[in-house]
Amino acid sequence: MIVEALGYDFFQNALIAGMLVSIASGIIGSLIVVNRMVFLAGGIAHTSYGGIGLAIYFGIPVFFGATLFSLAAAMLMAYITINNREKLDIYIGLVWSVGMAIGILFIDMTPGYNVDLMSYLFGSILAVSQEDIYYMSVLLVIILFSVFFFYKDLLAVSYDSEYAALRGVNVKFFYTFILMLSALSIVMAIKLVGLILVIALLTIPIYLAIKLSSSLAMMMFLSSLFSILFTFVGLFLSYKFDLTAGATIIMVGACVFIIFLIYEKISARYLNR
Question: In angstroms, what CA-CA distances link 234 with 55, 249, 255?
Fold first, then answer.
């Protein structure tokens, strides 16, 4: 079954795209979880649907439109959360819902376009093209370079923002910067698991990696490995049983996570005896 699947170009593209997205989600997901930005990342993911709708309406590449809109949403959410923390959930919910509404309305207004909403909400990785892979590769290079170049500042802001500020680190800038990198990784993951399930990909591998790592760099590395494992296993299972790839990938990760929790509880009981 594995050899048969690997013989198809679309499956090869899916594996390559899955690996690229897994690396990005492992790295950025670690920053999101450590900085407690999961809710914000979810808001960006759903808001990015507005960029998809605008891209379809104006006839520009969907990935490009989603990228621009997601970056704008990330900067807006950063501004809101820095200046209006007491009403954070209200503003994020508003931006979230308005972004999705914009996307739906512009898709409805596109003449003669009948879009499959499920492909954007739950992913369509088996439809990844060579051009999509090139675009994902560019975004991943940007993410890798940014994290490598600013690693010490990102580390300081993530674990002790007050001390980082005393050292002269621009905490507000890096807070916004992390959200913008999150937007790039979310855009990459749209093809893999879709907007609805993207947060699971950005959190499940990270929660596992946290238990096994003692540094942010190791967390990023292990998270990427877990993401790649979940993606590859999920892809092969979805091919064999004719299931939606994105949902299958997330369920593989969820099953591993549950098994890990059970193992952890059992181990803790035996150690306490």
Answer: 29, 4, 11
146 — pLDDT class (breaks 50, 70, 90): very high
Reading the block at residue 51, the tokens are: 């960029």
Closest CA to 139 of 28, 253, 11: 28
Q: Considering all CA atoms of the chain, what is the largest pairwise distance in Å, rounded to the nearest integer? A: 69
Give CA–CA dist 165/179, Å, rounded: 18
Any idea what the CATH number is for the domain that residue 115 is in? Answer: 1.10.3470.10
d(CA 68, CA 50): 10
The yes-or-no verdict on residue 129 having pLDDT over 90 is no
Question: Which of 42, 17, 29 is CA-nearest to residue 197?
Answer: 42
- Per the structure block, which two tokens stand in for 182? 């999150």
Sign of the four-CA dihedral 68, 73, 76, 81: negative
Give me the domain span that covers residue 11.
Answer: 2-271
Report how far apart, in Å, the C-alpha atoms of 263 and of each of 152, 205, 213, 249, 270 are.
34, 16, 17, 21, 11
Extract the tokens encoding 137: 């590769």
Q: Once rounded to an integer, what is the mean pLDDT over residues 15-24?
A: 92
- For 239-268, how does the pLDDT look when each residue is reduced to its tens digit (9 = 90+)? 888 888 888 999 999 999 999 999 888 887
Query: What backbone phi and psi angles, to 5 degrees, belong to 31?
Result: -65, -40
Domain count within the chain: 1
The reported pLDDT for the residue numbered 79 is: 87
Return the top range by mean pLDDT from 125-129, 187-191, 267-271: 187-191
- For residue 42, give Cα distances in angstroms to 28, 35, 167: 13, 14, 31
Return all residues near 33 (Cβ < 8 A) that are at least 6 apart.
202, 203, 206, 207, 210
> DSSP character for 125?
G
